[in-house]
Write a structure and sequence with these properties.
Length: about 350
């Protein structure tokens, strides 16, 4: 089985180091999503795996072999780009078959491969069409088909959905997930969209400024973020971060509220940040909650309503019921549940729990 190892991977452009000692071990068949804000180094990492960028330092191993100096076509990988280049003058069959251009197979063998891939992608009836006669989603499938036809051990996706409209994105996201279930190959997917990361990944790699911030399952990075960056990057709207300091039995928030809490590293007087997700705040009318204030904006989403509450000058977001939501101007009391509280060191942002 083919696994992939990145060991102390470094990328420099001239004197500027843009990737700093990246370490990652991906198991055969795993779906990994690299996610982070623009410029964090996701695409560079992917392109180094593909063999499209030189490696400044470190090692990439695929299936136990160091591939640092191998040409892209010798690495047993296939890449699907954002601007999937499919040829308008070629039929779907020839576009998919383009992936086999250099393969030493007979015409009959190539056609059998194309038919098999078209079958998996549900495109058997479309093989003689030109790209202009396809929908956006079908064109995307042709691009994936061209990657699949070579039966690579690793699929690399560089923001393949970002040019699609919202509805098609959701649909293609589901298709890629189903495809992964069917073909069982390792997939490494780059996106800046945390929802795509959460929905697709077996494990998410969250990056910032050329460093990995956390590697974990969607549940791990959501429920146990390693630091305040991950806490705010994963989940929308973002986790509320509240300033406070440690006390004998918990945390005293900036507004004077005492929150009973136990945690390692929670010493009296230590500056800390308390994190709480919008859905972990219970809202009710009136005042006297741990955090009370006035609703400045209510955003109805149907199933629930997001309320933005001004608590002594600090804006806090919470979820409220969809059917009987509070309105702007209402006085609201927000209570912290005992679960769902996250504690971070104030200076470093690193989780203390
Ligand atoms: P992402 O994919 O996360 O948006 P990239 O991997 O494209 O980020 O870029 C990572 C960093 O490397 C950015 O700071 C970017 O400006 C820099 N970078 C990318 N390509 C080059 C290049 N050819 N020359 C110099 N710097 C580059």
């Amino acid at each position: 089985m083919t696994d992939l190892i990145l060991r102390d991977l470094v990328k420099r452009y001239g004197d500027t180091e843009v990737l700093h000692s990246i370490n990652l071990h991906v198991a055969a068949g795993e779906f990994i999503v690299l996610v982070g804000p623009s410029g964090c180094g996701k695409s560079t990492t992917l392109r180094m795996i593909a063999g499209l960028e030189e490696i400044s330092d470190g090692v990439i191993e695929i299936g136990g072999n160091v591939v640092n100096n191998l040409e892209p076509k010798e690495r047993n990988i296939a890449m699907v780009f954002q601007n999937y280049a499919i040829y308008p003058h070629m039929s779907v069959r020839r576009n998919i078959g383009f992936g086999l251009k250099t393969a030493k197979l007979s015409k009959a063998e190539k056609n059998a491969r194309i038919d098999e891939v078209a079958g998996i992608l549900g495109m058997t009836d479309l093989l003689e069409r030109r790209p202009a006669q396809l929908s956006g989603g079908q064109r995307q499938r042709v691009a994936i088909g061209r990657a699949m036809v070579r039966d690579p051990a690793v699929f690399l996706f560089d923001e393949p959905l970002s040019n699609l409209d919202a509805q098609l994105r959701t649909q293609m996201r589901l298709e890629i997930k189903k495809l992964h279930n069917r073909v069982g190959r390792m997939m490494i997917f780059v996106t800046h969209d945390q929802v795509e990361a959460m929905t697709l990944a077996d494990r998410i790699v969250i990056m910032k400024d050329g460093h990995i911030q956390q590697i974990g399952t969607p549940s791990e990075v959501y429920h146990n973020p390693a630091n305040t960056f991950v806490a705010q990057f994963i989940g929308a709207p973002a986790m509320n971060l509240l300033a406070g300091e440690g006390t004998e039995g918990g945390v005293k928030l900036w507004n004077g509220t005492n929150v009973p809490l136990e945690g390692p590293g929670l010493a009296a007087g230590r500056p800390v940040t308390l994190g709480v997700r919008p859905e972990d705040l219970q809202s009710g009318p009136g005042e006297g909650g741990a955090l009370s204030g006035v609703v400045t904006v209510a955003e109805p989403l149907g199933s629930e309503t997001l309320i933005y509450v001004d608590v002594g000058g600090k804006e806090i977001v919470a979820t409220a019921p969809g059917r009987t939501p509070p309105a702007a101007g209402d006085h609201i009391a927000l209570n912290l549940s005992t679960t769902g509280l996250h504690l971070f060191d104030e200076a470093s942002g690193v989780a203390l729990t």
